[in-house]
Amino acid sequence: MSTLSIERITKRYGALTVIPELSLLVRDGEFCVLVGPSGCGKSTLLRIIAGLESISSGRIRLDGEDVSEAEPIERGVAMVFQSYALYPHMTVERNMGFGLEIARTPRPDIRERVTGAAEKLRLLRLLGRRPGELSGGQRQRVAIGRAITRKPRLFLLDEPLSNLDAALRVGMRVEIARLKAELASTMIYVTHDQVEAMTLADRIVVMNAGRIEQVGSPLDLYERPENLFVAGFIGSPA
Ligand code: ADP
Ligand code: MG
């Protein structure tokens, strides 16, 4: 069970309030897609949930446990970034298991988890390669694999496909959909691609200037946008 409860969090950078009193409940096993214009605070919100950024006020609970002050490693949250920072000198296998190495997971367990993740992401034949020998799509699969091996209770993906060209992105979308079905873990997925949002989401969260404009199923938002901003955003081309 992994329910995320964000309770009236505020984030300020000096005099600038980026997120004013935002609340959101993400249910166990839900695939939640976060959309909104550039600079509206999507990445900041994910970094806050992951513990990479502090909050000015409010609470964050995971399965009821208050993790607002917890270190990133203690939260059981994994994050995949837009620019997947793989270690260039390490093999795919070591890249995927490195987080577990640091956490002093026993070697046989690391092997088992890495193999399991590689199987899910069809990376088994690439385990011996280095990042420089992979395509963009393969590299992103390794970055996702690295997150999976940690068996996170919450999985955050920040525009993971936006660095890929259009053709690769379509293929990776299928990959993400497969992963969603297989992992059935709680996920928050940031994208500016409307097709991605509409096809992948259980619920879509529309953000604007640090606030949530509307939360609903893709159909809800499409058929019953609550305001002009949501209508304009959902209706506009990607
Ligand atoms: P998004 O991911 O939706 O494009 P971000 O979360 O990256 O938006 O940024 C939200 C706002 O916070 C932007 O106005 C950005 O300039 C600001 N911001 C982000 N990080 C910092 C920082 N470290 N210091 C000051 N302002 C920041
Ligand atoms: Mg961002």
TrEMBL record:
Keyword Transferase belongs to the record: no
Gene Ontology molecular function, alphabetical: ABC-type maltose transporter activity; ATP binding; ATP hydrolysis activity
Any one Gene Ontology cellular component term annotated for this protein: maltose transport complex
UniProt KW Nucleotide-binding keyword: yes
Chain ranges of the ABC transporter domain: 4-234
Enzyme class, broadest EC rank: hydrolase
Keywords, sorted A to Z: ATP-binding, Hydrolase, Nucleotide-binding, Sugar transport, Transport
EC annotation from Swiss-Prot or TrEMBL: 3.6.3.-
Family named by the database record: Belongs to the ABC transporter superfamily.
UniProt protein name: Multiple sugar transport system ATP-binding protein
Species whose genome carries this gene: Amaricoccus macauensis
Residue window of the full protein shown: 1 to 238 of 376
